[in-house]
Structure to design on (1179 residues):
């Protein structure tokens, strides 16, 4: 989720949107007016009217530490803003899922205002809501005790974060709903299936939890139908008063669409896009959270029949794209949720991800004409944040696709999409199938159907919820605990008051590190501390996982996830056929480099004793200049294609992954699986975690996901990529897809910053295409391509020590940016700003 | 270049990976140390000496002075405000100080690599070479100053199926080129200046041997059925090689003698990014104050090349050009390159 950069924050040249009709240009410009708009999609809040009622589900923000201090405020202000909904007379006799299903539907269909923006071709505008928990007084008390009590989930996660372990919490979204199935059946068909399931329940089951769940899902299954009817009648009304005949026709067309879909299966492109939008947006309503990794999956595959049909019926491709562009604008209004706190609200960590291209059965490439339609729309609409595209590449991706992608990168100063790499990704999916004993659900015949969630978190589609951002653990904490024998190195601090927390024996006693004779002893201690931090994270997460199971059903979403109806279980209860939860390791390279530094400084070079190193870290390196310089500059680092250093990376990887696979959630039986996504934690937690042996002082960024530490990557993109591939397991006879090994089924975020000169002309663009093909062979699961940015270079001018390895290339001539004189630096900045190489 | 019992080793200045300018595809370029020419514009002054050299990067220095104590020959001194000075006449390049330096402010330029060790290092990027039609380029310095090592290395790389290229200035005994040729899929050959007098003035040597070698090389390539590809490269240097008579003269030479053999003629624009390297090596650089050529200059020069009688298709130019927006142009020489240590 690290790809969001608000366009207005970029000071340098950036491609403007292109090829937009007056309609789309207006909608797009209107969107970018942000808080100045008279219409927006800000949260509206709704209550049962009871005095104990609460709307805000704080657990979904447990993975956003910036929000910890705001929780009580948000909880209170949503309550204050909430308007009462007249309840059904039987409301309080229902189960929690039935109450919740009814309440959300009632709010969306009858209470939330419906509007159509000028020229818009897609209906479904407001979807950001905070709806009542729908709890009785005793249920709410029970919930509050488990959340807010002394041993409650909130206190536990705040402590976990304050002490530098990371964060965790049962978070919304982060899955690919089964859109294809819902479109094909229409909600009518889904409803019929639910009725059928329900009729087969025993009378006892009907009265029990399963019956309640199915009834709730049935209520939810009619939500889109009833909302579409409201919008249809609005379109009819607008059409009547519309003077412009063209627009009147459009509004009548929209009404006709909405009168059919999404209750009936769509037949045309316009109907399909309309249905997909309503189906999708209501998931965000159901979860009360805007766009949290609610991903669309392989849109160029399952929407293709509708596109082809409409094209053959005479729809112009331009009009088809126009419809998609309206869809784009709608997706971006997710950010309106907290619009008054800034243009992107509290967090830009959304990720309505769509997937393009990739492998199909028998190794076939699945790129088609719709793939290019989507790429055209992305190109025309960018820079814009949502939906986030992810293009799947593989060894046989067509030249035409690569050319298109490279052209888009070269005109956008950085890729307007993430790239996912199929072979490595699928090897990881095969691994999780084997380790979890679900090869009947993921195997060589269907693994190509996977799609990334949020940014790059690989899952299957329509039957899989794998909690891809629920656990975020700083591996570096285990290094710290190994140095101290299980205690914080420096006291944790309250982020608001600065009050220091006492140091206690938290991890296992792994011995006095100052008495270790060799590095292996230290590594043993590190291994035991790693086992502890993983287990600790699992225990903290369990609290919110259990609370969610009991109090936060999402029956509408459950309709999109195979397994829920069959088992009569909500997706939050672990109803999905494939129900992992993911442990995302943060600070990988910082941890690896720290181990390398300890080995180098204390045991190999003997530049200091362990006691001196520990003291230097307690002093945040101050007064230890020589040791600090050695740690930073002379100790080996991961990311340079140095086999010895990369072996340490693989050792660390295998160790923590093995620990991860040992755990399951108790409440919901979800197997833990490993991944590496660091969102923004690697920046924020840099201020929380003590100085590290790799030479990083407290307050400096940690390493991001699977990337080398900042500044460590001195041998360029190929060596960086080779290191990443090796850390994932490389390629060998152990491989689970061909000879590809991937220890991280979730995938790993990898960002490389390139010099723009790599794309300066046709010959170089061919070389860049070849780079991507090489990455397929040697690299990781996912790649974000950034281009050297003038802001970064200016930072490097100000803080040369932090950027000493920043290499600039002007047509093949390399120089370390910080070692060329000021005037030359200015020239390079000017060059980058103007894209002139 | 030392011959040991087991294996040859070569003195390598730098390995640049994902190089996109030294031949086709994605390449790793090996910069060898040692060059027989001393071009006044040289972009890699640290590659001229055939021995390891010490240099000091002020922006990295933390002022710890460990190096001063480490040097047993009293070569180094430290002055407040100026940093470390190296008495180069007394430095024998033992490297102890660079080893001691915690911040890599002091570094030894040039490291010995064994043939197999280096070949294995280079093969790490095989996937990228294969996907891009790239490979390894031996550059310098001058590849023919370490011929024996280079031949072994190239043949090991070729044996491993990796595309090979050499980049030569041609100032050598023809025997050296003759040995290298069978192991090189591509030769990048410099013609810097067509006028022998001027060539001598710019590079320290006249161009007779270079042009003779080129003719012999072209003949060999023809005899071998063009199994080696030849590219000609010309550095376009302000107030030196950028002249119309030079460009057209080189063009006529190519047209007359290399027709059908030279498939590409690259005009490489002057580059000034190396300026600070000179100061780190304690050298004056005549081009320190020169700005880059403009895009128009390069277009004009490329037009001369295309009019010179060569097949216009083979002419290309590359390199950074001046940005004429008033801020980027560099005309001032830097007063003092030493960066204050703190």
């Amino acid at each position: 989720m690290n790809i969001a950069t608000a366009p207005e924050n970029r000071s340098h040249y950036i491609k403007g949107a292109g090829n937009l009709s007056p309609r789309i240009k207006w909608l797009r410009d209107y969107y970018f007016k942000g808080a100045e708009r008279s219409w927006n999609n800000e949260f509206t809040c709704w209550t049962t009217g009871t005095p104990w009622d609460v709307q805000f589900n704080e657990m979904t923000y447990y993975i956003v530490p910036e929000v910890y201090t705001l929780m009580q405020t948000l909880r209170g202000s949503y309550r204050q803003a909430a308007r009462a909904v007249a309840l059904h007379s039987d409301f309080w006799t229902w189960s929690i899922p039935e109450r919740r299903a009814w309440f959300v539907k009632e709010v969306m269909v009858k209470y939330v205002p419906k509007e159509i923006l000028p020229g818009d071709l897609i209906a479904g505008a407001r979807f950001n809501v905070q709806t009542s928990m729908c709890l009785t007084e005793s249920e709410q008390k029970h919930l509050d005790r488990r959340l807010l009590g002394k041993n409650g989930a909130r206190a536990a996660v705040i402590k976990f974060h304050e002490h530098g372990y990371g964060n965790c919490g049962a978070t919304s979204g982060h899955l690919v709903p089964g859109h294809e199935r819902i479109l094909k059946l229409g909600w009518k068909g889904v409803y019929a299936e639910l009725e059928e399931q329900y009729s087969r329940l025993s009378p006892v089951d009907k009265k029990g939890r399963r019956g309640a769940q199915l009834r709730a899902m049935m209520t939810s299954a009619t939500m889109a139908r009833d909302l579409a009817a409201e919008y249809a009648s609005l379109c009819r009304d607008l059409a009547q008063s519309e003077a412009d005949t063209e627009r009147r026709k459009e509004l009548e067309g929209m009404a006709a669409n909405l009168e059919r879909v999404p209750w009936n299966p769509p037949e045309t492109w316009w109907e399909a896009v309309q249905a997909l939008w309503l189906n999708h947006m209501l998931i965000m309503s159901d979860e009360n959270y805007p766009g949290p990794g609610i991903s669309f999956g392989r849109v160029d595959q399952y929407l293709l029949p509708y596109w082809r049909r409409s094209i053959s019926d005479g729809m112009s491709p331009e009009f088809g794209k126009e419809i998609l562009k309206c869809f784009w604008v709608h997706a971006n209004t997710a950010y309106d949720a907290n619009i008054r706190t800034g243009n992107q609200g509290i967090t830009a960590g959304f990720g309505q991800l769509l997937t393009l291209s990739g492998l199909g059965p028998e190794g076939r490439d699945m790129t088609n004409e719709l793939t290019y339609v989507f790429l055209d729309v992305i190109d025309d609409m960018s820079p814009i944040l949502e939906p986030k595209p992810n293009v799947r590449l593989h060894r046989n991706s067509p030249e035409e696709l690569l050319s298109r992608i490279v052209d888009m990168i070269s005109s956008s100063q950085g890729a307007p999409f993430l790239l996912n790499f199929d072979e490595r990704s699928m090897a990881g999916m095969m691994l999780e199938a084997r380790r979890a004993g679900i090869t009947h659900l993921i195997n060589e015949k269907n693994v190509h159907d996977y799609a990334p969630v949020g940014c790059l978190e690989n899952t299957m589609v329509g039957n899989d919820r794998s909690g891809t951002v629920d656990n975020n653990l700083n591996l570096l904490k285990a290094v710290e605990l190994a140095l101290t024998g299980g205690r914080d190195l420096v006291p944790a601090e309250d982020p608001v008051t600065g009050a220091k927390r006492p140091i206690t024996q938290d991890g296992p006693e792994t011995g006095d590190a100052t008495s270790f004779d060799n590095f292996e002893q230290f590594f043993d201690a590190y291994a035991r501390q790693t086992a502890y931090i993983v287990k600790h994270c699992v225990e903290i997460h369990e609290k919110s996982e259990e609370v969610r199971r009991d109090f936060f059903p999402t029956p509408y979403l459950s309709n999109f996830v195979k397994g829920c109806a069959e088992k009569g279980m909500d997706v939050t209860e672990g109803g999905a056929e494939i129900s992992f939860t993911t442990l995302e390791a943060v600070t990988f390279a910082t941890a690896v480099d720290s181990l390398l530094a300890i080995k180098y400084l204390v045991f190999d070079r003997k530049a200091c004793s362990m006691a001196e190193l520990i003291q230097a870290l307690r002093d945040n390196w101050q007064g230890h200049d020589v040791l600090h310089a050695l740690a930073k500059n002379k100790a080996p680092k991961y990311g340079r294609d140095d086999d010895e250093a990369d072996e340490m990376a693989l050792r660390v990887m295998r160790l923590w992954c093995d620990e991860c696979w040992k755990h399951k959630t108790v409440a919901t039986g979800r197997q833990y699986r490993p991944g590496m996504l660091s969102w923004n934690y690697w920046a924020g937690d840099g201020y929380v975690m003590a100085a590290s042996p790799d030479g990083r002082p407290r307050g400096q960024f940690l390493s991001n996901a699977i990337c080398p530490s900042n500044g460590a990557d001195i041998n360029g993109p190929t060596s960086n990529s080779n290191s990443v591939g090796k850390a994932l397991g490389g390629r060998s006879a152990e491989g689970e897809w061909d000879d590809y090994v991937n220890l991280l089924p979730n995938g790993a975020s990898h960002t490389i910053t390139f010099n723009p000169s790599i794309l300066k002309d046709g010959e170089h663009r061919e070389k860049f295409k070849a780079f991507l093909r090489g990455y397929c062979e040697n690299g990781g699961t996912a790649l974000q391509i950034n281009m050297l940015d003038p802001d970064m270079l200016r930072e490097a001018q100000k803080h040369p020590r932090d950027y000493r390895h920043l290499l600039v290339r002007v047509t093949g001539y390399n120089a370390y940016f910080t070692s060329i004189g000021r005037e030359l630096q200015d020239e390079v900045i000017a060059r980058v700003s103007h894209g002139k190489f | 270049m030392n011959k040991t019992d087991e294996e040859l080793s070569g003195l390598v200045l730098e390995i640049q990976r994902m190089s996109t300018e030294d031949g086709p595809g994605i390449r790793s370029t090996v910069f060898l140390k040692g060059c027989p020419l001393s071009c006044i514009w040289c972009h890699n002054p640290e590659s001229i000496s055939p021995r390891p050299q010490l240099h000091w990067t002020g922006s990295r220095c933390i002022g710890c002075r460990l190096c001063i104590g480490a040097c047993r020959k009293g070569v180094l001194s430290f002055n407040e405000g100026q940093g470390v000075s190296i008495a180069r006449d007394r430095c024998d390049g033992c490297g102890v100080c660079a080893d001691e330096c915690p911040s890599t402010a002091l570094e030894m330029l040039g490291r010995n690599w064994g043939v197999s060790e280096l070949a294995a290092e280079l093969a790490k990027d095989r996937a990228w070479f294969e996907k891009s039609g790239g490979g390894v380029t031996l550059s310098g310095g001058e590849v023919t100053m370490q011929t024996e090592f280079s031949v072994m290395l190239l043949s090991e790389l070729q044996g491993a199926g990796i595309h090979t290229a050499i980049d030569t200035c041609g100032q050598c005994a023809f025997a050296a080129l003759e040995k290298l040729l069978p192991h090189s899929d591509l030769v990048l050959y410099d013609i810097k200046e067509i006028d022998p007098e001027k060539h001598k003035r710019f590079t320290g040597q006249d161009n007779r041997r270079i042009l003779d070698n080129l003719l012999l090389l072209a003949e060999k390539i023809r005899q071998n059925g063009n199994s080696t590809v030849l590219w000609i490269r010309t550095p376009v240097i302000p107030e030196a090689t950028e002249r119309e008579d030079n460009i057209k003269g080189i063009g006529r030479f190519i047209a007359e003698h290399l027709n059908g053999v030279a498939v590409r003629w690259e005009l490489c624009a002057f580059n000034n990014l190396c300026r600070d390297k000179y100061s780190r090596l304690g050298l004056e650089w005549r081009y320190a104050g020169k700005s880059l050529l403009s895009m128009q200059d390069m277009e004009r020069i490329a037009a001369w090349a295309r009019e010179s009688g060569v097949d216009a298709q083979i002419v290309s130019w590359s390199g950074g050009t001046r940005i004429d927006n008033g801020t980027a142009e560099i005309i001032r020489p830097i007063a003092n390159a030493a960066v204050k240590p703190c």
User: Anything to note?
Assistant: The CA atoms of residues 158 and 172 of chain B lie 23 Å apart.
